[in-house]
Amino acid sequence: MNRVVLVRRGASVEARECGDDGRVVGTARLPAEELAGFVRAREPGRVRWVWDDTTRWYPGLLDAGVRVERCTDLRLTHAVLRRSPFVDQSLLTDDETPGWDALQPVSATEAALFPLDDPADRLDPVGEHRRQRVALAAAEERSRLDLLLAAESSGALAAAEMTHAGLPWRADVHERLLTELLGPRPTAGRRPAVLEGLLAEIRRALRVPELNPDSPGELLRALHAAGLPVPDTRSWTLERLDHPGIPALLEYKRLSRLLQANGWNWLDTWVRDGRFRPWFLPGGVVTGRWASSGGGALSVPVQVRPAAVADQGWRFVVADVAQLEPRVLAGMSGDTAMAEAARSADLYEGMVAAGAVAGRADAKVGMLGAMYGGTRGESGRMMPRLARRYPRAIGLVEEAARAGERGELVHTLLGRGSPPPAGEWAARPVDLGEPADEELPREVRDRHRRSWGRFTRNFVVQGTGAEWALCWLADLRNRLWRLGSGTVAERPHLVFFLHDEVVVHTPGHLAAEVADEVRHAAAAAGRLLFGSFPVDFPLDVSVVRSWAEAG
DNA sequence: GAAGGAAGCGCC
DNA sequence: AAAGGGCGCTTCCTTC
Length: 551
Prior knowledge:
Blueprint lengths: L1 E8 L2 E7 L5 E8 L3 H8 L4 E5 L2 H10 L7 E3 H10 L5 H4 L4 H6 L5 H6 L11 H13 L4 H24 L1 E2 L2 H12 L10 H14 L9 H10 L9 H4 L7 H17 L1 H7 E2 L2 E2 L2 E3 L9 E3 L20 E8 L2 H10 L2 H7 L4 H7 L6 H13 L4 H13 L1 H15 L36 H42 L9 E5 L3 E7 L3 H20 L8 E6 L7
Parallel strand pairs: 1-4, 4-5
Antiparallel strand pairs: 1-2, 2-3, 6-8, 7-8, 9-10, 11-13, 11-14, 12-13
Helix pairs in contact: 2-8, 3-7, 3-8, 8-21, 10-13, 13-14, 15-16, 15-20, 15-21, 16-17, 17-18, 18-19, 19-20, 20-21, 21-22
The structure holds a DNA duplex.
């Protein structure tokens, strides 16, 4: 594989050819405006482009109509290697390391505002690349780390392409939906008519003429005065109350939430030219999940999904994995009994069929408890049964929890390490007797320990689930490219990704092939992570005009 | 008036 | 006896 490190030098770019060990074997220098043509010309020769950070290079290439198949995003791979327990840190670190640790992605607006003072320009990508290659060559579990770094970098390409293409969004459909639910758009600072009506009803029922239900403090006092001794004003707390004002209050909360989070202001801010373009942030969560920025992309409510409509003659292919995390747990722990349950399209039904639990609800609440650390009530009662039937799977998460409680680090299947615990509790070994003065009381320390144990318990499963999803996404991205011709947005392409769900925008006549490729990519991801271990990842796949029709 | 925390709620 | 993971966003409310 040819590796070419791209380096910014003022108005020009250096392209430095490297061997697998990161040593430079050749250099070309070109004016920045010739970069897109250079990359386009070299791309067919199976190049891995190496750059400091995908958000600083790839949006410009995409705007110029250039797509690349593979890259190394040094910012992201640095972050993984720095925390991986498979890596000898002394091979990786250098005077520049704090600069790489601190490097942040940019959005296009920032890049336009501050083109001249970028901390990335004070870092040397060639040196960092060489250090990473040396550290990787000496790492334990080299092939797992290789896979993780490749998948992480591919994710960065997919993220940039999704923002570039945008999720098709019909503002007219969205506006009609808002008007039906809330009434016509009010002038700035006024409530929509439907909310005003509900407000009057709430004030009447609670006998507080000036009540502002958007203020939790005010609302709580009003509820108490009405003889409703609630501890908070959350919807699920209020649902259990029997009082004439409550239905209107719950409806007010539901509609008010829609208005605030995804109302007309959201449309004005985030939808342009028929596209919703959030920023996806690969590696933005410590577990390896993506974060997002702008428009709340990771929590687009079901309520407004009817407005996501494929272009004329195009379709969405929407796919999600059923019970990703329990399946991943079965695979990473090598628990054949749980993998057997996972053979079923519904893993929880598979557990019922095996006689492990009485009903689907028990299976679900038990597994969620095992993965999140819920031990109270129903899910706690299920744990002994599950531990007997699935000793390896349950043992793996229990061990991760105990390690976290001891202040130790855990890691995912491919080698992403958990962050070190912070805080005073972590500075002390477990059994030092009673604390001295000015130290945390024992019960406070223990609470922190258990809380961190729940985090590390979940880290190994959530993080390995994120690795499966990244491999799925990376493989799918390349399969989609091969289905069409032209630029990214002219072929079937990804427009949305959320933990265990993808949305592909595709010309209608290719939709069936896209659905096949989505399934093939999922099977390939399973083999990449778990080899021949027999754990299935069945998908729900829908071909639809609107996102809301999926599922 | 800016900044930051808490409450609350949406997604997985 | 108590013990449920990860996010982003908007509003309210306190602090400086």
